[in-house]
What does this fold into?
Amino acid sequence: MTLSTSQAPHRCLLHLDASPRHDGSFSRQLSQIFVSLWQQANPNHDIVYRDIGTSPIPHIDESWVATYEAEPEQRTPQMQAAIALSDTLIDELMAADCYVFGIPMYNLTVPSSFKAYIDQIARRDRTLHLNNGTLQEPLQAKKLMVITTRKFNYRPGSGREDRDFLQPYLTAIFNILGLTDITYIHADRLASDPAEQQQSMNDAMTAIHRLAPIF
Ligand SMILES: Cc1cc2nc3c(=O)[nH]c(=O)nc-3n(C[C@H](O)[C@H](O)[C@H](O)COP(=O)(O)O)c2cc1C
It folds into this structure.
């Protein structure tokens, strides 16, 4: 049965950018194209934007960890305050049903800004798939599109495939959060000669044009 637009469930896309640069950022350019195409295919649905590249997420600190380790019912108001941002980020994740993340590769993996984000959203009391033997499934039905940019080619056969710690890391951590529907689009060879760089961007854009409208 096909649902009409009015019957279709309301959707929300969380769009996140992690590049610290605006001018010339390839990942921002590609994630924005993805969002525009998704919006055309899903008019009147919600898009929430979070820019951790230029508004960095703080690293977790001592009071955060103390709160994380305390049982929720033992948390004082001060402890609640220490994880308030974490709660906000998790609420934002849960309110969306799909995500597009634009992430540059830095030193073979995600930028530290994105690692700080992961540390804030991975919480045993809220998002870990398995908590004390009990299944929690907050992210299980969600889907994630990761658009990465990098200078070199790490694809199978490139000779560098064992140095891509970005994709295996993201897959592992989001699987632990219960999210297994993950697609990657890699724009690589971005420091190569202009023709090769353009070809790589064109290939990424072709994939985005194909996948964004059906995401
Ligand atoms: C600090 C830093 C580390 C980087 N590390 C890598 C790397 O390990 N491998 C790689 O292929 N490219 C690396 N690059 C290149 C970036 O991934 C590339 O410039 C990418 O386009 C950055 O994304 P953006 O254009 O959205 O800012 C690095 C760039 C910077 C600034």
In short: DSSP finds seven helices and seven strands in the chain. The chain has a mean pLDDT of 94. The CA atoms of residues 3 and 9 lie 9 Å apart.
